[in-house]
Structure formats: structure tokens, C-alpha cells
Amino acid sequence: MSSEPGSDTRSEQEREPSAETSPETSPELGAESTLCVVVDRADRIQISLNRPAVKNAINGQMIDELHALCAELEQNPRILILTGSNGVFASGADIAELRERRRDDALAGINSELFVRLAALPLPVIAAIDGWALGGGAELAYAADFRLGSTALRIGNPETSLGIAAAAGASWRLVELVGEPLAKEILLAGRILNAAEALAVRLVTEVHEPDALEAAAHALADRIAAQDPLALRYTKQLIHAPREAHPAVDNAAQAVLFESAQKFARMTAFLDRKKQ
């Protein structure tokens, strides 16, 4: 959903790719891409939404490129860090495109299918939200496993003011994340949360100054990367499994992990450290 996120023109702080860059497995993004690879390492990739002229509004091209990114991460799992640019995460869906969509477009779930796919990626997704995250931009953030915000964060879903519903995940993800009463304020009354409010209800788990946000996202990625990747993948699946699937799915996952080489290596290293 488009809104007027102000005229903040802060440039995004970029990091140099490490020596572990893997260009042969990175998504191919051309000069006209709506995404920008900021960091590309063996254990993670940081992607910036890059349509600064329209405050990173999500259009069909960005959806297609995010699908391509998901396809690559499904084949070669890594931690994904999503950021915005120029002090805006994503101002929402591109209204010029959205106005022309019809019944068949809605039934195709153009945005919702992407966000479901993003949420199901094998390894965790971190959304580092600086500035505005509205409508589809907020729903993109809701699909992440972790949300970190800057002090400039403003997040909400003003879709009903434009005659549509927040139908790309907010109607159920937001209820799960913050509870029904607050979700109704956001979805039905147009409430926009600031950073302090979002932190208070744990919609974001950390708040940092804008110039420290990316470093905080990478610090979180470092902690995630220290875990066993296979254990991470199974644990994420278990978190998202339906309640009625437990405990059978837990037992099945643990059965695989109990036989993994990493389980023996990590537990042996732990016991060896205790002997010292």
C-alpha cells in the first residue's frame, strides 16, 4: 500500500562482501533489478529492496525477483537478511499496478504466495526495518522469522483506506504476532506503530539507531550461523508445523538429528571442553 513515508533520504550503509562470496550461487540481478545484493557470504545473503524513487514499493518485477531469490535459497540454504534503502523498508504495493489488478489477480495470490514461500525458506529470514513498512511491505516483514527495527520504524496496514483488504498474510500473521485486539486496530482502524510500540508488543525484537541496524542484523545472523544448519532447518519446520502434528513430527525430526554427524561432533566437542 502506498502512503507518504516522508522525504528521508539517508543512504543505506553498505558492507563489502566477504572473501566467502559465492557468485556462482547468487541470484542474477541486472542493472535494472529491484533488488540489490549487499552482502554475499557462504552462510548468508543480504538483499536490499531497491526502488528508491517509489520508496521501495513492491511491484511485479520485485515479486518475480524475490521468487528467484527464494528458488536459489531453497536449493542452497543460507540465512537471508532483507533491508530497504534510503531510509525506507517498503512503502507497500505499487499502487499504479495494484489499481489495475482484477479478480483473477486476487485469486492468483500474487503477493501472498511469495510471502508463504519466503516464510518457508529452510534457514531463518531476518527483516531489518528502517523507516516505513506499510501494507505489502509490512506483510513482507511479517513473513520473516525475525524483525529488527530502527528508531525511525513505522509499520502498519492501511489497505482498507484504499478499498482492499490486507490479504497477503496480515489478516492471520499479524493476529498470531501481536494478538487480535491490536491486530484489529492496525487492520480495521489504520493504526501505524512506531518503533517503541512495535518493540513493546514484540512485533520487532530489537530497536537500533538507523546506522546501527544492519550491524545488529548481522550480529543476529552470526548467532544463528553458529548453530547446526540441519538442526535449524528441522526446528524451523517444527515451529511451523500444525499443533496436531506434534509430538510425532518432533520425534521424527529428532530421529534424523540423532544420527547426524554434526550431533556427534558438536556433543563430543562440548564434552571435551568440560574436561578441560
UniProtKB/TrEMBL annotation:
MF terms in GO: enoyl-CoA hydratase activity
Keywords: Lyase
Ranges annotated as biased composition (Basic and acidic residues): 7-18
Annotated region described as Disordered, given as residue ranges: 1-31
Regions that span the bilayer: none
Keyword flag Lyase: yes
Enzyme Commission number: 4.2.1.17
SUPFAM superfamilies with a match to the protein in the record: ClpP/crotonase (SSF52096)
Gene Ontology biological process terms, A to Z: fatty acid beta-oxidation
Xref: InterPro entries: ClpP/crotonase-like_dom_sf (IPR029045), Enoyl-CoA_hydra/iso (IPR001753)
Matches recorded under PANTHER family: ENOYL-COA HYDRATASE, MITOCHONDRIAL (PTHR11941:SF54), ENOYL-COA HYDRATASE-RELATED (PTHR11941)
Stated name of the protein: Enoyl-CoA hydratase
Organism: Glaciibacter psychrotolerans
Lineage: Bacteria, Bacillati, Actinomycetota, Actinomycetes, Micrococcales
